[in-house]
From TrEMBL:
<dbReference type="InterPro" id="IPR010992">
    <property type="entry name" value="IHF-like_DNA-bd_dom_sf"/>
</dbReference>
<comment type="similarity">
    <text>Belongs to the bacterial histone-like protein family.</text>
</comment>
<dbReference type="GO" id="GO:0030527">
    <property type="term" value="F:structural constituent of chromatin"/>
</dbReference>
<comment type="function">
    <text>Histone-like DNA-binding protein which is capable of wrapping DNA to stabilize it, and thus to prevent its denaturation under extreme environmental conditions.</text>
</comment>
<dbReference type="GO" id="GO:0006270">
    <property type="term" value="P:DNA replication initiation"/>
</dbReference>
<dbReference type="GO" id="GO:1990103">
    <property type="term" value="C:DnaA-HU complex"/>
</dbReference>
<dbReference type="GO" id="GO:0042802">
    <property type="term" value="F:identical protein binding"/>
</dbReference>
<keyword id="KW-0226">DNA condensation</keyword>
<dbReference type="InterPro" id="IPR000119">
    <property type="entry name" value="Hist_DNA-bd"/>
</dbReference>
<protein>
    <submittedName>
        <fullName>DNA-binding protein HU-beta</fullName>
    </submittedName>
</protein>
<dbReference type="InterPro" id="IPR020816">
    <property type="entry name" value="Histone-like_DNA-bd_CS"/>
</dbReference>
<dbReference type="Pfam" id="PF00216">
    <property type="entry name" value="Bac_DNA_binding"/>
</dbReference>
<keyword id="KW-0238">DNA-binding</keyword>
<dbReference type="GO" id="GO:0030261">
    <property type="term" value="P:chromosome condensation"/>
</dbReference>
<dbReference type="GO" id="GO:0005829">
    <property type="term" value="C:cytosol"/>
</dbReference>
<dbReference type="GO" id="GO:0003677">
    <property type="term" value="F:DNA binding"/>
</dbReference>
<dbReference type="GO" id="GO:1990178">
    <property type="term" value="C:HU-DNA complex"/>
</dbReference>
């Protein structure tokens, strides 16, 4: 399922226009991004939790030359599925 399929499903389920569904989806995704950027956790009960994890700096190798390169530390988004989502899938 891609974004346009999701917008169609939201529009049909909520009985709203596709344009309104697209705006709602965009607003939801933007709100989650902003919260994660501030370092907050976003919990949707029954669905899951979005949070920011930390990846330590490390050494890697350039596969073409074999030279050692330094990979910087980074913040990465993480998602943990909730019980409701796990039950729906299984």
């Amino acid at each position: 399922m891609n974004k346009s399929d999701l917008v169609d499903a939201i529009a049909n389920s909520a009985d709203i226009s596709k344009a309104a569904a697209a705006r709602a989806l965009d607003a939801t995704v933007d709100s989650i991004k902003k919260a994660l950027k501030k370092g907050d956790t976003v919990s949707l009960v029954g669905f899951g939790t979005f949070k920011v994890g930390k990846r330590a700096a490390r050494n890697g190798r350039n596969p073409r030359t074999g030279a050692v390169i330094k990979i910087k530390a980074a913040k990465v988004p993480k998602f943990t599925a909730g019980k409701g989502l796990k039950d729906a899938v299984n």
